[in-house]
């Protein structure tokens, strides 16, 4: 629950004016594929703009207002720089921050000060002025929404990337508004049966997060992840580079390694606000 909570959020594409897309191939492959693709097409037909950051010219990128080429796994740097632009220009939702977060505006501004567009350009390859102009258009063209998911998050820094996306939307005041990101609502059904107990026997599970199964050159480990047909194309498909075996992949040039620590990320974790767990103590944490 470091990102969306216990349910997936929804994007109100029917009423949005601006879509900021980080690596999601919405028109061909998405969690909510068919309805998501149709709503995206309808939004563009209604005049909404869509900027897509992707490592390849996907069909979604082709249909976008603009496609921005970005180095794989560096979406986080661009998003942090956009947050920096909002804070430095004083274009943020102060009321939202003061009401639903546990940090002050000054603390957040100070933390984001290091993540300049110029810094992000060196990491991502996206020109600083391009980052700055898109960030300003995003916050000024409300309601607006960010789409991401696997294209941006299937990397070693994926969780932090998704949390930064939520922070950007919170700063712009685009959470739980018409045309923005709608917090997921879980139904409170009463169970007619008792909750079954979990299995008593615990199995030893190979931890793929550290890349042990592939970094040691184990063909068995590779097969466990990709079958017997592991290829570089499989790893590069749809802007989805796995963190598993990243050290090994880096040797062959598949996963770009950061030249510096991206640092601690102030991130958004939203509770309440139409969520099934909402209540007087509901809050949004910037951790």
Please outline the helices and strands.
Layout: E1 10-11, E2 18-22, H1 33-45, E3 49-54, H2 59-63, E4 66-69, H3 75-88, H4 94-100, H5 105-112, H6 117-124, H7 128-140, E5 144-147, H8 150-153, H9 158-171, E6 181-182, H10 212-215, H11 219-226, H12 232-236, H13 246-251, E7 268-270, E8 284-286
Parallel strand pairs: 2-3, 2-5, 3-4
Antiparallel strand pairs: 1-6, 7-8
Helix pairs in contact: 3-6, 3-7, 3-9, 6-7
Biased composition (Basic and acidic residues): 204-217, 227-251
InterPro entries: Mopterin_OxRdtase, Prok_Mopterin_Oxidored
GO molecular function, one term: oxidoreductase activity
Summed up, what is this model?
The chain has helices at residues 33-45, 59-63, 75-88, 94-100, 105-112, 117-124, 128-140, 150-153, 158-171, 212-215, 219-226, 232-236, 246-251, and strands at residues 10-11, 18-22, 49-54, 66-69, 144-147, 181-182, 268-270, 284-286. The chain is α/β, with parallel strands linked by helices.
Please explain how this structure is put together.
Residues 12-182 form the Molybdopterin oxidoreductase domain. One of its GO terms (molecular function) is oxidoreductase activity. Keywords: 4Fe-4S, Iron, Iron-sulfur, Metal-binding, Molybdenum, Oxidoreductase, Signal. This is Molybdopterin oxidoreductase domain-containing protein. This protein has helices at residues 33-45, 59-63, 75-88, 94-100, 105-112, 117-124, 128-140, 150-153, 158-171, 212-215, 219-226, 232-236, 246-251, and strands at 10-11, 18-22, 49-54, 66-69, 144-147, 181-182, 268-270, 284-286. It has 287 residues and is an alpha/beta fold. It has two domains: 10-185 and 260-286, Dimethylsulfoxide Reductase, domain 2, CATH 3.40.228.10; 208-251, no CATH class. Helix 1 (33-45) links the parallel strand 2 and strand 3.
């Amino acid at each position: 629950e470091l990102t969306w909570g216990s349910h997936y959020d929804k994007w109100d594409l029917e009423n949005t004016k601006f879509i900021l897309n980080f690596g999601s191939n919405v028109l061909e492959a998405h969690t909510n594929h068919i309805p998501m693709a149709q709503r995206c097409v309808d939004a563009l037909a209604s005049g909404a703009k869509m900027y897509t950051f992707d490592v390849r010219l996907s069909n979604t990128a082709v249909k976008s207002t603009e496609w921005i080429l970005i180095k794989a796994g560096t979406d986080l740097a661009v998003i942090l720089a956009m947050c920096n632009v909002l804070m430095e220009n004083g274009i943020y939702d102060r009321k939202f921050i003061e009401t639903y977060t546990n940090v002050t505006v000054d603390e957040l501004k100070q933390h984001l000060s290091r993540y300049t567009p110029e810094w992000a350009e060196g990491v991502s390859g996206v020109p600083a002025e391009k980052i700055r102009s898109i960030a300003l258009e995003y916050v000024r063209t409300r309601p607006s929404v960010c789409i991401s998911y696997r294209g941006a998050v299937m990397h070693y820094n994926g969780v932090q990337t998704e949390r930064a996306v939520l922070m950007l939307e919170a700063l712009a005041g685009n959470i739980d508004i018409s045309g923005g990101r709608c917090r997921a609502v879980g139904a409170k059904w009463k169970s007619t049966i008792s909750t079954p107990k979990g299995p008593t026997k615990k199995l030893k599970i190979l931890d793929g997060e550290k890349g042990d199964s592939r970094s040691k050159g184990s063909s068995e480990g590779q097969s466990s992840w990709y079958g017997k047909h592991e290829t570089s194309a499989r790893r590069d498909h749809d802007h989805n580079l796995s963190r598993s075996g990243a050290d090994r992949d880096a040797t062959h040039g598949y996963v770009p390694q950061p030249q510096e620590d991206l640092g601690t990320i102030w991130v958004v974790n939203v509770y309440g606000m139409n969520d099934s767990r909402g209540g007087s103590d509901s809050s949004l944490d910037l951790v």
